[in-house]
Amino acid sequence: MSFLIDSSIMITSQICFFGFGWLFFMRQLFKDYEVRQYVVQVIFSVTFAFSCTMFELIIFEILGVLNSSSRYFHWKMNLCVILLILVFMIPFYIGYFFVSNIRLLHKQRLPFSCLLWLTFMYFFWKLGDPFPILSPKHGILSIEQLISRVGVIGVTLMALLSGFGAVNCPYTYMSYFLRNVTDTDILALERRLLQTMDMIISKKKRMAMARRTMFQKGEVHNKPSGFWGMIKSVTASAPGSEMPDLTLIQQEVDALEELSRQLFLETVDLYATKERIEYSKTFKGKYFNFLGYFFSIYCVWKIFMATINIVFDRVGKTDPVTRGIEITVNYLGIQFDVKFWSQHISFILVGIIIVTSIRGLLITLTKFFYAISSSKSSNVIVLLLAQIMGMYFVSSVLLIRMSMPLEYRTIITEVLGELQFNFYHRWFDVIFLVSALSSILFLYLAHKQAPEKHVAP
Amino acid sequence: MASLDRVKVLVLGDSGVGKSSLVHLLCQNQVLGNPSWTVGCSVDVRVHDYKEGTPEEKTYYIELWDVGGSVGSASSVKSTRTVFYNSVNGIILVHDLTNKKSSQNLYRWSLEVLNRDSMPTGVLVMNGDYDQEKFADNQIPLLVIGTKLDQIHETKRHEVLTRTAFLAEDFNAEEINLDCTNPRYLAAGSSNAVKLSRFFDKVIEMRYFLRDSNQIPGFPDRKRLLGGTFKNLHYD
């Protein structure tokens, strides 16, 4: 009986998450496009719903809500469905929509997409070989095999995003890095842009006029053909020596157009910087500036910890909650009910981690989608994003295990089987370090390059 | 060759509707082989005979400014775009017949241009329905062009063309529906070519022959309410 009640609660929450994913898709992602293939929207919302359900189960685990056996059942079921979607459905549909875009292969969509899916499965399987992810006791098609590989990809993604985010966040928030931009700078650049456009226009006018006179001459001569026609056309083109001129002008125009594009992008950059300067003078801006200093310290600490972990081959044994409680009890001498507080604190901590990672991921996905999608490729890109999202959330579950006290970790360990969790943490640290350091390098180069452009006349 | 007078016509529309292909077709009478994303603005020139076939025939240069981007761009991009909107004599609004959103976004595009003087950041939030008054007040000739006609199935064609007729009516403009990869839609003598010619003639007239309409009017009593949305009368 309680199982039925529990299941109905789970299903209701899943429907809520599904609805949220649907709305997010329609309102945010596909704001400027028309949804023609509803399959894409359904897949995205389903992936989102099942991912959120996993987090919900973790929270229920901590809070002790619902029956423990029904929780276990739902965990298993959820995991199976998510793996099914991530490994079978989404890659197949990505291949299908990708092939549909190519006009040549339009007729044989199905066999080609099956072929693409098989290629994906091959590489996906090969991914597991170089990594010591699981003990060799398991069969070929078990959950552990699939999860281990999904986990590797997801953890890599998480670490890359974390590394970049950790460095980019203080860089964006702090006004120390803002370049000084005045209105005169912007006006000067705009003037240059318009001058370039005028130059392009005058050259194009010459070309258009030349084409027109050639066209009119061509009509008078009535398109000569045959042997005599060839002789005629040779003599006719001599006075019209505008032909070679056209190619020369076209080259000049190409160069000018490239220049105009660069000027446009620089002007956009200046406007964006100006807006940021104005924003930093507001109250909200000052608040974010302060946060930026705080985050930069946090970022440096994280990089330091990651290096320590790798160098000393150390994987954290205890979670922050238990350690914090130990510190307060042992060193500060404050006595309180450990069990009660550890439950609530870990709930809050884990909850914050979950919410911020979901929100952060959705925002990043939206930005990414706006930047690279076009009307042709929007379906493929959304499915890729759904795949990334699913893998990201599955690996979050893997890694969040480390932030929870021992008694709550059991369910994850039980459900996910005998994965080498320590490997994933080490791998996260490595990729995080690599990503953070390369982001620092990248931002440094980008920052260095920009001011010099404005000094040049 | 003597230097001819010029007029400036903007070509606006969402990303991917086919503005670059259209401009290439109009100016060079050829199909664009490899369309790529327009960054910033690309210009092309068309030589046009005003009042062709009459004694007052005169040749003009028509500059087609193809502005790239989308209505939802960042405000820094919008601010930069406004530099291209100076002294505009005509506007061609391009939408994709297979994508309803691109047609709906045309309202926002036209307002971005017509309101650029008073709204430098290009952010406009309106309340209420669009009324024809705003566009009747406007002195700049508009033309609505729908692209990718070949991708509309025969059975749906009537429904789509009715919808675009309403759209053109809202803008108080003529409309042309074509496929930019097929030059025969604009073949000399076809009704599309005639409409195009008429539009360019109107633009030239407005610029050179009607002295008092050189100024581009703003909308002094435009409502600016925060958090409002606009409703579209004709589609759901």
From TrEMBL, chain A:
Q: Which residues form the Abscisic acid G-protein coupled receptor-like domain?
A: 279-448
GO BP annotations, alphabetical order? intracellular pH reduction
Keyword Nucleotide-binding in the entry? The reply is: no
What's the domain of life for this entry?
Answer: Eukaryota
One GO CC term on file: Golgi cisterna membrane
Q: How does it sit in the membrane?
A: Multi-pass membrane protein
Q: Which residues form the Golgi pH regulator conserved domain?
A: 142-207
Give the residue spans that cross the bilayer.
Answer: 6-26, 38-63, 75-98, 110-127, 147-169, 290-312, 345-370, 382-404, 424-445
**Subcellular compartments:** Membrane
Location, primary (coarse class): membrane
The alphabetical list of record keywords is: Membrane, Transmembrane, Transmembrane helix
Catalyzes what? iodide(out) = iodide(in); fluoride(in) = fluoride(out); bromide(in) = bromide(out)
One annotated GO molecular function is:
voltage-gated monoatomic anion channel activity
Is Membrane given among the entry's keywords? yes
Q: Which family does it belong to?
A: Belongs to the Golgi pH regulator (TC 1.A.38) family.
Name the chain's protein. Answer: Golgi pH regulator isoform X1
- What is the protein's species of origin? Octodon degus
Lineage, top ranks = Eukaryota, Metazoa, Chordata, Craniata, Vertebrata
Automatic annotation (TrEMBL), chain B:
> SUPFAM superfamilies, alphabetically?
P-loop containing nucleoside triphosphate hydrolases (SSF52540)
Q: Which SMART domains match?
A: RAB
Listed A to Z, the keywords are: GTP-binding, Nucleotide-binding
GO MF: GTP binding
Sorted alphabetically, which Pfam families does this protein's record hold? Roc
Which PROSITE patterns does the record match to this protein?
RAB
Keyword Amino-acid biosynthesis assigned to the entry: answer is no
* Stored Gene3D superfamilies: P-loop containing nucleotide triphosphate hydrolases
Task: State the function annotated in the UniProt record.
Answer: Required for KRAS signaling regulation and modulation of cell proliferation. Regulator of KRAS prenylation, and probably prenylation of other small GTPases. Required for lymphocyte development and function. Not required for myeloid cell development.
Subunit info here reads: Homodimer. Interacts with GPR89; the interaction stabilizes GPR89. Interacts with RAP1GDS1.
Family label: Belongs to the small GTPase superfamily. Rab family.
Question: What protein am I looking at?
Answer: Rab-like protein 3
Name the source organism: Octodon degus
Gene that specifies this protein: Rabl3
